Please model this.
Amino acid sequence: MPSEFEVIARYFTRPARTAMLGVGDDCALVRVPADLALAVTTDLLVEGTHFVSDTDPEKLGHKALAVNLSDLAAMGADPRWATLSLVLPEADEAWLEGFARGLFELADRFGVELIGGDTTRGPRAVSITALGTLPPGLALRRDGARESEDMWLSGNTGDAALGLAHLKGRVKLPDAALRHCLARLETPRPLVELGRRLRGIASSAIDVSDGLVADLGHVLERSGVGAEVWLEQLPRSRAIAECTDAKLARECLLGGGDDYELLFTAPQQRRAAVFTLAAEVGLPLTRIGRTVFGTPVVSVLDDAGRPVSPGPGGYDHFRD
Ligand code: ADP
Ligand code: MG
Model:
């Protein structure tokens, strides 16, 4: 079995490209252009909580980085560097090889350089810190929404949660729907290009990781506005639309996590700019509601404008 240092050297060390100094010293060194801010985000995935023990390591490598790149996207940052902290019960080479493949495949796609980390033995867990850059005044913060703005959503929500519901035996999906939902659950795609192109258009943004209503709630809290979401306007995948359990489908749509879509607000005057952007980045962007004056709560409305229950809220690690 390889030693800790052999693991680092064999699987996680590559020559520095944009960093001044990469893996191998006490610290990595990076140069941040004087006019840019460094955007820093960390996510922790723990076996048994975020993934099961027989998760395909390649998919885990992808997802561990993808969730961080999604946070950078939601801030409007350009991804640049990452560090990786790994806790592993043993130096299983097949596992390490798969994990590194999934991680570097995605890293290469977005020009992200792995510049350091930490490796230790214990119950399996993976934590990545991703670093990006952006002009500080253009960051897509959660506190920028104002009343009477449009609320936009990329793609559609619910698929990942519906896939998970299948794995947990709560529903039986047809093959094609299952494949689609599991791909969304296991290999989410971070919407980096959309995020960076929303600079100067969106007034606030968040990535949907805990559920649409819950994540929107975070934006409203920080911005001090309310919002209505139009249930019938929410885009639905075929898997959601054709789900035999309509109640579950709605729960997934409004409250399911792990979608990594971008939810953003923009002034009404920017509507044309958003539609143009949708065409340019090749992603559906749908107006799903609006911000309103008042307390920071989400009202989900049906077609007749009547409030409907948003269902169970987002995931809370200390409660659920
Ligand atoms: P230290 O004792 O200073 O924490 P380590 O011996 O833990 O240093 O790590 C040696 C070098 O390898 C450091 O540059 C560290 O950033 C890097 N490193 C350790 N683990 C990983 C990993 N899983 N992925 C990438 N780099 C790593
Ligand atoms: Mg160390």
Q: What stands out?
A: The mean pLDDT is 95.
